[in-house]
Amino acid sequence: MEPLFSNLIGQSMVKSRLQFAIEGQKAGRPLPHFLFTSAFGSGKTAFVREFAKNIYDGNERRRYVEINCANVKSVSWFVEKVYMPHMLDRNCTVLADECHELPKSVQSWLLTVLNTEKSHIRRVVYDDSEIEFDFLRTSIHFATTDANKLSKPLKSRMEIMTFAPYSQDDLKQIIQINCPDVEFQDNVLEDLVASVKPYPRAVEMLARIVNDCCAIKQRKEFDSADFFNLSHMADIKQFGLDNIEVGILKLLDERGPMTLTEISACLSIPANALRQDHEHHLLKKGFLRLVGKREITPKGKEAVKMFKSVDGAE
Fold first, then answer.
1. What is the rounded CA–CA span in Å between residue 252 and residue 114?
2. Which residues are 37's β-sheet partners?
3. Who's near 57: CB < 8 A, 6+ residues apart?
4. CA 239 to CA 102: how far, in whole Å?
5. Residues linked to residue 221 through DSSP beta bridges, in sequence order
6. Which of 164, 161, 127 is nearest to 142 (CA)?
7. pLDDT tens digits for range 22-62
8. DSSP state of 181
9. Nearest to 25 by CA among 49, 52, 5
10. Nearest 5°: phi and psi at 120?
11. Are 151 and 180 in contact (CB under 8 A)?
12. CA distance 51 to 64
């Protein structure tokens, strides 16, 4: 039998903790209420799904239910759409994905559901009656990119699982797993990893493009020349930057330090979108710094020179 989670790359500590929880469940212990938190595309949902696949009651695999919390409008919605059909007198593992979207009223109600008292039975008031959760038979887990939007008392009911950054070797393995028929030549895997944001979802999307390229060329080998051509055809940029991020750097290089509002006006992109979707990666790469205003770093200036030389070559 293969070890648990062998098909998932990286996150050894997360794997170890989840395997320990599964062993505890087999020994008759209730599962913890896990909160998985990490950046977009880090593999949270994949890990929860694999975790759920390995939870059994006797010889029967426990049912798995996944809900997007943006759809949870009220306590009544949760009870009628999740508890009644899946959890009442049933064995079930529930993932509340994007749980930062849960309304405050539902978060408050879950405080009672996830009460830390010793009994595995929870009886909760609902609609002038009581409903019962048996956490030997069911478990509720949560995933989010923004744990700060959950109430602190609710988070204190959960065991928080944070994901470590993926290493370069992890990202290479993810590409190879998703390109099983491709033979990578030269050091092209290094080039591929350097051209993508360091998260499994982004790497998997790049792997699909590589597979498409090999299918079009009708050959299995993929080398540095193929990557150079593919970069132009599929608009793959160095450092995992997208066009907006390159645009931010070029703007700051030309005009000097700017406020987020000024950048937003120049690029015609909402300030919140710039902050949430682009600034983090530029800061992480060391291309941008915040000193009251947004300012490009020397490393960022070097990146701009490189992009301008590529533009000139084209």
1. 48
2. 144, 162
3. 91, 137
4. 35
5. 183
6. 161
7. 999 999 999 999 999 998 889 999 999 999 999 999 999 99
8. T
9. 52
10. -80, -5
11. no
12. 10
φ, ψ dihedrals at 229, nearest 5°: -65, -40
pTM: 0.85
Nearest by Cα to 89 from 141, 148, 133, 45: 133
- The single-letter code of the amino acid at 70 is A
* Nearest-5° Cα angle at 149, 148 to 154: 85
Bridge partner list, 266: none
Tokens representing 296?
A: 């490009």
pLDDT digits (tens, 9 = 90+) for 208-251: 999 999 999 999 999 999 999 999 899 999 899 999 999 999 99
What is d(CA 15, CA 33) in angstroms, rounded to the nearest whole number? 16
Indicate the angle between helix axes 200-217 and 168-178, nearest 10 degrees.
40
State both tokens at 235. 């608009």
Q: Which domains does the chain have, with CATH numbers?
A: 12-162 (3.40.50.300), 168-236 (1.10.8), 241-313 (1.10.10.10)
